[in-house]
Amino acid sequence: MFKILFDRDTWQEIFGSIQKNRLRTIVTIVGVLWGIFIYITLSGAAKGLDNGFDRQFQNVAINSMFLWAQSTSMPYGGVKTGRNLQLKMEDAQYMYNRIPELQYIAPRNARGIFGSAAPRVVRNSKSGDYSIYGDYPIFTKIATKFIYDGGRFINQADIDQERKVCVIGERTQSELFEDDENPIGGYIRISGVFFQVIGVHKYVPGGGFESDSDIFIPFTTFRKLYNTGDEVSWFALAAFDDADILAVEEDVKTAMRSKYNVHPDDERAFGSFNLGEIFNRVIGFSKGMNLLSMIVGVATILAGIIGIGNILLISVRERTKELGIRRALGATPKEVRSQIILESVFLSLTAGVMGIVLGSFVLAIINALTADSSTFPYTNPTVPLSYIAAALILMITLGTLIGLIPAQRAVSIKPIDALREE
Amino acid sequence: MIHLIDIHKSYNLNTNPLHVLKGINLSVDEGELVAIMGASGSGKSTMLNILGMLDEADSGTYTLDNTPIVKLNETKAAQYRNKFLGFVFQSFNLISYKTALENVSLPLYYQGLPRKERQKKAKEQLTKVHLGERTHHVPSELSGGEKQRVAIARALVTNPMVLLADEPTGALDTKTSYELMALLQEINDQGKTIVVITHESDIANMCKRIVYLRDGVIVEDKKIKQKKAKDYVE
User: How far apart are CA A414 and CA A416, in angstroms?
Assistant: First the structure.
């Protein structure tokens, strides 16, 4: 078999018979080419979407959630319904003690979101209203903050000494500072108090309510500035990687209900937002896309290859006489069979390679078009080599199998019948 | 060389068995040029098919150069055809998209000969049939006589023991027919055994022996004085 494969004459025979009917060969090839093209483009697009979602989530810990307090919806322990609840600093330690799966807990306070008025921020003659967050450095373990070179995020010393320092957003910088000005070390006035800028954070889109104009200050400074005492607006929590975040979410809420004397079944007393769950949904979606693209691609390839088999059947019928001559001249059934099968495989493979090239080309174009878009979840659409290898193997296999049908037909006609003068 | 002993062959057409060959006994020696004559339906084509291992007899024995030809599967038959026999057909049966040279070298391809050797042999053979100049033409660019000469070159290129020609002049005009017969005689004079099927008596008379077939039996088998085709060509 291998001797046949690497024999120049075998290929000359194949080219000879393929070239005999160029138009038909081209149309046949287009069928398979289309199949593999669809397969490559779809799975590349699915991968691009996958990468895009990954990018959207890259700045947050996947296993994280937010917890905030609302008001009770059930009477409990002699207290009527509708009691407002307020999270406190001590809850963090309480949760650490009760739920060992928790890795990080970051209490946060904020002004300027969820209905509260945004504080006025002033620098010289420029001013604006921006959301202000009181944060601990540990928050960056849960949601990464990219700080531009030369700056830093809030650190423990800022917290301990209640420093009046702030990290501003890109938009804040462009609105309060001149273009050629280095904001680091500069001062801005937040709610009438001067803060020194220690960093500029890069805004990374990724859902949530944050924006490119947010200002972060130390939690302890925030507490003093707005007189919030032990109050916490919400907690950002991250569980260990191997923890089931859904179970942790339930545990956290159960713990908080018992601490705040809330009815154990009161679902509305504490609100939460689970990133892990959202992430899983997105992952599930892109997995589904992958599967879909694979099924559609394979089905299209299959249709194309059946087309090749069909065309070869017709071609065998047309070439009955020629095959009869060949056998009269000494071609064994095996040689006739392998020639037809090789034709089939060759057509499939040629079409396949062309489809792969074309598909990659289209993916490259899509990539170029979406490269600048940071909000559209689509990055680096690629097809893993293993997929391409699988597609090629699939085509060789199917090409061989489908080639068997016309090959068997070619052999089943006796040379004497093939040569009979009509 | 060829020994046919009591060959019977019948075809089942619509459950009505058609007895085509009813006991053929024939011996052909090396170097003979035999014409097989008969009306259509006399069984001459069936006989040639059996000689050519394209068909198998129902009973009787067929020996070719002391090799019993019996119970051949397709692969074995293909190999024997390639090794022992050369075919020339009425309608030439050249492969239309191959050049004369490629057509002639095809049987050598199935013998597994290297490419260079095939081309060399094919070229020599084409020169022998006086077509040395037209090796790179495809059949549609050749005249009928030229096509048949390519077919003869193809039949001879493997140096077979027997050349089987089925109405080789059937599609040619008289002048071209005689030219072709002159070529066959030339090949025969070099010692090749040739069996020609024909229904034209002038062609048959250019052979050395005529076998008459009627209704599946040999009715006459005579050696004749060969008429040289060359004398008619000029």
Answer: 5
